[in-house]
């Protein structure tokens, strides 16, 4: 078992390192906020307590979600290994044991690294809070034993839960079913995932309705902000269902551009399960960024705040949370694009064998990626609409957006599109430089 673990970590480190980055950074942020919370309680600083509690809690939620997604994507990429393992007699228990050892190793190493990173990070976060007038300059935040132990334990438990959740589907398949499942990229949802996604979306709808009908004034952010993550999380869970009609519509548009567009449209329709994770990374980042920044702009405008002034505690939380989500989503997007490119290698190899040039093959892949990216941006904008509009109605009694919101939205969407396609171009270029004979031999 330990030999298999060593081989897996050496061969699959690019996918596992994303999980490690998310765990390390999440553990660092949780440790810092735990120490801040402890210092705030000891010193009686209410604003420090509020900021550290809210930001720490949201960080935990984001970390757990992204680690589960990262593990799921990594195991999906290793479907051939697990299917062959089941076919040659590896039992479900042995499969779970292998993934448990992987998760435990990643959790221990990443959480320990996060604890080291928490020391310089605490200095930076405390400086931001001091500059904003939230924490006094005399406040000291030394590392505390309980927050450190709790953050490390949380990182390890998160890694274990994510690993066992991701491997559950593969361990429950019969050997023949596992071999079939390995090549299924149609994006079918399991009943449990579909029901969970619908339940989360209903929770988001309930919070949006409470924001619209019950809340008034800036306090509406207490229900509007959690609604963002429920809407985004629910959409992520049922992403293949939401992405499929967008793929059909966008595919019809790009198909008229010529052969690469037509082939990309057919490929995207056949591989919705591979395109959906690409869209999910963007819908979470864009939806959260647009929603949080738009809400904060509305609060600042309602309070007559100037852009250069010091924001309140809620503003600090929103801006820090936006930066954290964007950073996490960027790492997750790069990971999903790499896995998508590796998963489509067989199709590109066949395309090359039929006489296509590397440029034609790469262009077709980029157009297919563009369909996934645009799908994610559309869903992210939808998340922003269903969360920001009820908040505006509760805050000011009308739906007029703050000045500059549309320009900012266009800038966010344009930047996300440009960065996503630039990353995709680099990944596609690196994964299509293999000579045809080597690619055929590899396949």
Report a brief summary of the structure.
The protein has 17 helices and no strands.
Shape: globular
Category from helices, strands and their pairing = mainly alpha
Gap from first CA to last CA: 27 Å
Number of helices in the DSSP assignment? 17
Q: How many E strands?
A: 0
The gyration radius over C-alpha positions equals 23 Å
* N-to-C order of helices and strands: HHHHHHHHHHHHHHHHH
Oligomer: single chain
Spans with pLDDT under 50 lasting ≥5 residues?
435-443
Percent helix: over 70%
Strand content: under 5%
Integer tally of domains: 2
Mean pLDDT: 78
Q: Main beta sheet: strand number and arrangement?
A: none
Q: Can you describe what's shown?
A:
This protein is an all-alpha fold and 443 residues long. It has 2 domains: 1-184, no CATH class; 188-443, no CATH class. Helices cover 84% and strands 0% of the residues. It contains 17 helices and no strands. Helix 13 (313-343) packs parallel to helix 16. The two termini are 27 Å apart.
């Amino acid at each position: 078992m330990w030999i298999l673990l060593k081989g897996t970590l050496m061969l699959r480190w690019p996918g596992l390192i994303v999980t490690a980055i998310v765990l390390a950074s999440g553990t660092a942020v949780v440790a810092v906020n735990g120490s801040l919370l402890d210092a705030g309680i000891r010193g009686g600083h209410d604003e420090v307590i509020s900021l550290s509690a809210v930001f720490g809690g949201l960080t935990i939620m984001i970390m757990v979600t992204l680690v589960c997604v990262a593990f799921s994507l990594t195991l999906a990429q290793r479907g051939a290994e697990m299917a062959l393992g089941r076919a040659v007699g590896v039992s479900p228990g042995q499969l779970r044991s292998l993934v448990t050892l992987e998760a435990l190793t990643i959790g221990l190493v990443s959480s320990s690294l996060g604890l080291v990173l928490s020391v310089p990070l605490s200095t930076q976060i405390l400086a931001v809070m001091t500059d904003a007038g939230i924490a006094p300059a005399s406040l000291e935040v030394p590392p505390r034993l309980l927050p450190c132990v709790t953050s490390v334990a949380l990182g390890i438990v998160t890694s274990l839960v994510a690993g066992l959740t991701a491997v559950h589907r593969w361990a429950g398949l019969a050997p023949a079913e596992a071999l079939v499942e390995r090549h299924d990229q149609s994006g079918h949802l399991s009943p449990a995932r579909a029901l969970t996604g619908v339940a989360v979306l209903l929770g988001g709808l309930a919070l949006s309705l409470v924001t619209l009908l019950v809340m008034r004034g800036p306090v509406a952010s207490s229900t509007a902000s959690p609604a963002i993550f429920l809407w985004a999380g629910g959409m992520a869970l049922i992403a293949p269902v939401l992405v499929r009609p967008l793929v059909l519509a966008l595919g019809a548009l790009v198909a008229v551009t010529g052969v690469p567009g037509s082939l990309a449209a057919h490929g995207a329709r056949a591989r919705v399960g591979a395109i959906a994770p690409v869209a999910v990374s963007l819908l979470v980042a864009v939806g959260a960024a647009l929603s949080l920044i738009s809400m904060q702009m509305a609060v600042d405008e309602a309070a007559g705040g100037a852009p250069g002034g010091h924001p309140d505690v809620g503003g600090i939380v929103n801006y820090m949370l936006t930066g954290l989500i964007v950073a996490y989503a960027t790492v997750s997007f790069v990971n999903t694009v790499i896995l998508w490119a590796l998963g489509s290698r067989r199709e590109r190899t066949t395309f090359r064998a039929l006489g296509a040039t590397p440029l034609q093959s790469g262009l077709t892949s980029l157009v297919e990626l563009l369909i996934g990216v645009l799908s994610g941006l559309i869903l992210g904008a939808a998340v922003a609409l269903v969360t920001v509009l009820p908040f505006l109605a509760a805050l000011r009694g009308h739906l007029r957006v703050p000045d500059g919101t549309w320009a900012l939205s266009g800038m966010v969407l344009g930047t996300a599109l440009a960065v996503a396609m630039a990353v995709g171009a680099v990944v596609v270029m690196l994964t299509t430089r293999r000579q045809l004979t080597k690619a055929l031999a590899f396949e």
